[in-house]
Specification:
Layout (H helix, E strand, L loop, with lengths): L2 E5 L5 H14 L4 H6 L1 H4 L3 H6 L1 E7 L2 E10 L4 E8 L8 H15 L4 E5 L5 H6 L3 E7 L8 E8 L11 H8 L4
Antiparallel strand pairs: 1-2, 2-3, 3-4, 5-7, 6-7
Length: 174
């Protein structure tokens, strides 16, 4: 199996959005919730053009995506989606590692994300740590998203926090 990672192009917006919807449906959420989440699950061409969005290809077929979104105070992993038929084949890990390396190359010390509760285990395996929670109630159903952080300078068994990391965390009020 050959996994390749490359930058997404704005004309791939519909294909990436379809992967996002399929991935969310994989967790058996009610279809009404999927419809409510449509704006959050849509990856518009402008988002792709204005952020570092990566796609994973297995044997030439697009199977997943994720985005590195930068602000003055934070590097965030967003839109991490894998085609459910391709889950468990290494594309998620490859995208995650690629994005971590890109963030390191940009001189960043940490990467944050808000995870779907069903994906928290994946991120924990990728050495992210839970740093809080984001309330995400829907239709009167209480829902909490794990807020997670990856220390990009972390060595095996280490979890140091730099002053830049503390500053980045203090600016999150999600």
């Amino acid at each position: 199996m050959n996994i390749q990672i490359r930058r997404a192009t704005p004309d791939e917006s519909n294909a990436l959005t379809a992967i996002a919807h399929a991935a969310k449906r994989h967790w058996k959420y009610p279809e009404k919730w999927i419809e409510i989440w449509r704006p959050e699950l849509t990856i518009p061409p402008e988002f792709i053009a204005n952020n570092e969005v990566f796609v994973a290809l297995i044997d030439g077929e697009m199977v997943g995506c994720c985005a590195l979104v930068l602000s003055e105070s934070l590097a965030e992993l967003e839109h991490m989606w894998i085609d459910p038929q391709q889950m468990g084949r290494g594309a998620g890990r490859a995208l995650f590692e690629h994005t971590k390396q890109r963030a390191r190359d940009l001189g960043l010390t940490e990467l944050e994300l808000s995870a779907d509760p069903n994906a928290e285990g994946f991120y924990l395996r990728m050495r992210a740590e839970r740093i809080g929670e984001v309330k995400a109630d829907i239709e009167g159903h209480p829902r909490v998203l794990p807020r997670m952080r990856v220390d990009l300078n972390q060595k095996s068994g280490s979890s140091t926090t730099t002053s830049k990391s503390k500053d980045q965390r203090s600016k999150i009020k999600s």
